[in-house]
Amino acid sequence: MSTTAIKQQLHHLCLAYVTQRIMNAQAAMEEAQRAANEETKSSAGDKYETGRAMMQLEKQKNALQLAEALKLKEQLAKVNPTKTYQEVQPGCLVKLNTGSFYIAISAGKLRLEGERYYAISIQSPIGQALRGKKQGEEIIFNGKKICVLAVV
Q: Is residue 97 situated within a structural domain?
């Protein structure tokens, strides 16, 4: 598989990750609303107010998670997986002596055709350390010397 095809597949996996987070947050918000509606029907007095307040907090927490997931989707939309890069920036695939990283969003470990990749954001600590680096350059990260083997 070509590196462009690998990057496109990794991009697709990142999009699936974000889409799942959005769906989970929306489902949790709907469940919190349903629970609040049921609490309204079955409770009275202080218990009713406490239940409603707890459901409102749950909805707010889920709304925040939804907003974060939508922000990730927006960041991912700005990444071009078909472009070839000479230095580390969003959209590139970086092969280090410690592993392979797709610079896009923080989506964690991804598996593709038996290989392990890490989807990271350029704003992450390792992303910041790698920003602008080219093939053959080295960084010191967490006390370890890391060599950039390839940037595509």
A: yes
